[in-house]
Design a protein that fits this description.
Layout (H helix, E strand, L loop, with lengths): L1 H16 L3 H23 L28 H5 L13 H18 L1 H10 L13 H12 L8 H30 L6 H30 L8 H12 L8 H26 L7 H18 L1 H12 L2 H9 L18 H12 L8 H40 L1
């Protein structure tokens, strides 16, 4: 059947070519587009069921290959980006979100390593850094060029499913709540609420990966690799250790994501009111939203890092009663548990300024990180949805 269809198109092209050059050009373009549709149809088998299905598409008209050259540009024009994502399925959001999350964490991982070390309350003398660039330079020269990438595989494994759930949940709830709160328009309350709920799913998947990653990022980390770290934590501290910082993570990420999504959507209203695919506006909005949210939640991030790493020197200082606070030693501290305990520990060992350790590194990390995440996510959402639309149009034309 496909071969017969191809022969008919060739014959139609040959017939029109002898009559009118303009029509011949339109027919040749139609043939090229048909071949392109065949190529994409084969390549789409790679993603299989993950490729989105566009719901609620308007009925496409049958395209006449003998149309005039003046009519061709009108019928061939692609629908704009604003109309495409509205029909994107959950699988589109999940696939685009997974790719965005993996790229975000992998590209910014060296800065994340520096942030973790600079948040240390009692760092070793060799792990005290002046700024981000000084930390990167010293880590590479003294510990090896690949040392800032330790723990990357654990992050990549966790970031894919975590961000898939994160973006899919956000998109679904944002639309549902916006239709209820402010039908036909953007609702900041809906954006913030959707971001908070999406964070619950994201952190439930990502928290164990964060524990492993941050322990491997610390100076003089005793673990040989990811599996060794997982096995050691499981045997010595039990499975609960992988979720010891979960409540703190939520306490930090719920306001972070609410502020992040509300700022991003607000900036999109200003910079991209028609909500078309605009890479520069996605990157700028994401960067500014990430910077503002990161600066505001740094104290909670310091507490989360302490809970994840269970910093040995900090535990030793607690046992000896050191620190600027008035609290005295309480015997041997084996573990720091809970947000309140982490807050007391940070204040006792670092004072008020201890809550802002690594703030510079955190902002420097979050600005490009959220810019990458949003721009990659919007790009893949646009590309997948447009590809599916083109495939459906080609199938309709063949029918």
């Amino acid at each position: 059947m496909e071969a017969d269809g191809f022969v008919r198109r060739r014959r139609m092209t040959a017939e029109t070519t002898s009559n009118d050059p303009g029509v011949a050009g339109a027919s040749a373009g139609a043939e090229v587009r048909w071949l392109g549709g065949r190529f994409w149809g084969v390549s789409e088998s790679i993603v299989g069921s993950l490729t989105p299905r566009i719901g609620g598409e308007t009925q496409l008209q049958t395209v006449d290959f003998t149309r005039s050259a003046q009519e061709a540009p009108i019928e061939d024009s692609e629908p704009d980006y604003e109309g495409l994502p509205q029909g994107a399925s959950t699988s589109t959001h999940m696939l685009a979100g997974a790719v965005a999350g993996i790229m975000e964490h992998c590209l910014m991982f060296p800065i994340d390593c520096v942030k973790t070390r600079m948040q240390s309350l009692q760092p070793a003398p060799a792990a005290r850094y002046r700024n981000v660039m000084d930390a990167l330079r010293r880590i590479v020269t003294t510990e090896g060029v690949w040392r800032p990438m330790r723990g990357l595989n654990a992050t990549a494994v966790g970031a894919g499913p975590a961000h898939a759930l994160y973006f899919a949940c956000y998109e679904k709830l944002k639309k549902t709540l916006s239709d209820v709160i402010h039908p036909g328009a953007n609702s900041h309350l809906a954006n913030g609420t959707a971001g908070c709920v999406a964070t619950l799913l994201h952190d439930a998947v990502m928290n164990p990966a964060e524990v492993v990653k941050q322990r491997m990022q610390m100076y003089n980390s005793p673990y040989r690799g990811v599996l060794d770290c997982v096995r050691a934590v499981w045997q010595k501290e039990g499975p609960a250790a992988f979720y010891r910082s979960y409540t703190t993570q939520l306490t930090m990420n719920v306001p972070f994501q609410a502020l992040h999504f509300m700022t991003y959507e607000y900036l999109q209203e200003l910079l991209n009111p028609h909500r078309q695919y605009n890479p520069s506006s996605h990157m700028l909005s994401g960067a500014l939203a990430g910077a503002i949210a990161a600066a505001a939640t740094t104290p909670l991030d310091v507490c989360k890092t302490l809970l994840n790493t269970q910093e040995s020197l900090a535990l030793g200082s607690l046992s000896s009663g050191q620190g600027p606070g008035k609290g005295q030693g309480q015997g041997a501290h084996r573990q720091i548990t809970g947000l309140a305990h982490a807050f007391r520990t940070v204040y006792r060992l670092g004072g008020l300024q201890g809550f802002f350790k690594g703030a510079q590194a955190r902002v420097i990390y979050q600005m490009p990180s959220t810019a990458i995440s949003w721009s990659v996510y919007e790009f893949f959402k646009y590309g997948l949805t447009k590809h599916q639309h083109s495939k459906r149009r080609t199938q309709h034309m063949e029918a």
